[in-house]
Amino acid sequence: MTRRRRRRLAAWVTLVLVLSGVGYAVWLARSPASTPSAGTSAASASGRPADSTVTRAPSEQVPAGSCTPAVADGIPVQPGVATPVPDASTSRQALAGLTVAPRTDGASFCRGRFGPDTWPDLDANGCSTRQDVLVRQATTVSTRAIASHGGRCQEAISGTWIDPYTGETMAFTNLKDPAQAQLIQIDHVVSLYNAWVSGASRWTDAQRVIFANDLAAPELQAVAGAVNFAKDHAGAEAWQPPAGQCAFARAYVEVKRKYDLSVTARERDALDATLGTCPA
Questions:
Q1: Over the range 106-119, which residues count as b (16 or more CB within 10 Å of their CB) and which as e?
Q2: Model-level pTM?
Q3: Residue 50 in 3-state DSSP?
Q4: Between these two residues, 68 and 30, which has the higher pLDDT value?
Q5: From residue 254, how far is each of 34, 81, 86, 214 by CA, in Å?
């Protein structure tokens, strides 16, 4: 190989190496941050503390696209005894005092912000919220002691219940059978979605968990699963039960009053019309 050809070859090699280095630098600058290794959170990898906060300031909005489930740990013991529901006249007065406003923040609704998938035990009696509602609302019930929430619970196994939304009797022989258990569900009189768009989106997670498991307010009802699905998250202007409308409207207004939740104009008018048909 001649000296000239060797010099030309060396020049080409040098150019290739330079261009390769430039290309790598550009790729490195544009590539995303490396993924933390298994067992290392993205927060710790960045040097920032992980976001393990359960509650948020009442004025703090949940970030768009964020739906981290809330937990019930650390919430003070809540009352487990139901309080009397006001009569129709008192309910109409309470309804007149509610804030009338459009629903907001519906796009950011997050079911998980009202608590874990399983019912907690906020009144610390050893039984979950579902079990408390089932036992206290039963017409007849057979129970069995089980270990639950760090204690013992008399779990409803069989019995009869009157659906407050239809007036029909529901009878079950084995609520440990999933096929039977799904036929009786716990309804939130003011749905979690309705609460969210009426003010609960601005609550702390702890406040939302308390609301979703409130055994003192008339918020929780054992109803037929099909009725619960039919109601879904509708407000009182779009859905009221085929039976027991007065009791439903009184309970609905009391929950809204207790938690300072707003109503829309249509929601208010529908409730007022129903309460106007109730005995004083």
A1: eebbbeebbbeeeb
A2: 0.77
A3: coil
A4: 68
A5: 52, 16, 7, 12
